[in-house]
Amino acid sequence: MSERKVRGAFIVVEGLDRSGKSSQVTLLEEHLKAEGVAVRLVKFPDRTTPIGKLIDSYLRSESEMDDRSIHLLFSANRWELAKSIQDSLESGTTVICDRYAFSGIAFSAAKNASGMSYEWCRGPDIALPAPDITLFLAVSPEQQRARGGFGEERYEKADFQERVEHVFERIGVEMGDGSRWFAVDADQRKEEVAQELWRLVQPLAKGTDRPLGRLWADLDERVRNAHLYI
Questions:
Q1: Per the database record, which ranges form the Thymidylate kinase-like domain (predicted)?
Q2: What is the phi/psi pair of residue 153, to 5°?
């Protein structure tokens, strides 16, 4: 019986705005490289693509869009890179993703907009590559406000961030034990958070032989189609 090929690990870092994600992603990337691991860093939204530029304008409040339109653009931005992420993983490169589909669902569902149920928001991202581990950085409102730049972009409002956090909690519960979803206290010092993330990631540092999963691939086909076309 032949051994299964080892591929790169797919690591996703999620969190509320000003939770320290970007700093922690950079530290994690540096740690993995120091261990001799080939690493690719991906940030969503990717504001460099044609779709990403539309999203960037919206986030800076330089343009307006229907809530459903912008949600679908965020999802399309992820699908733009889905194949290249899978190719990187299969080549043995570990991929660290700063935000992913979970943010797309949380920020859209938190709007409580008509026609944008949690299930509808999840629909467009069904079958994207599934992460091997998701690290959610939980930050308090007090720490958010204390960190520089909070409030500069459209979604950086305290009441909205609270609703976003509630949706993230639902996602974490829904994903279950097999998803490897971990919440980390991001109110700690940067070094302490980095140490906790490394403890969780280290078992995957040299890759994994598990087949690459697909997000919510076990949803009933009829329900899946209904979510996509409502």
A1: 13-196
A2: -115, 165
Within a domain: residue 159?
yes
User: What's the farthest any 2 CA atoms get from each other in the chain?
Assistant: 58
Cis ω before 124 (30° cut-off from 0):
no
Band of residue 177 on the pLDDT scale cut at 50, 70, 90: low
- Of residues 119 and 150, which shows the higher confidence score? 119
Cβ atoms 216, 131 nearer than 8 A: no
Q: What is the CATH number of the domain that holds 192?
A: 3.40.50.300
The answer as to whether 2 is a domain residue is: no
DSSP secondary structure of 24-63: HHHHHHHHHHHTT--EEEEESS-TTSHHHHHHHHHHTTSS
- Distance CA(24)–CA(73), nearest Å, equals 26
Residues 165, 13, 69, CA angle at the centre, nearest 5°?
65
pLDDT in tens, 55-99: 999 988 899 999 999 999 999 999 999 999 999 999 999 999 999
Does 222 score more than 70 pLDDT? Answer: no
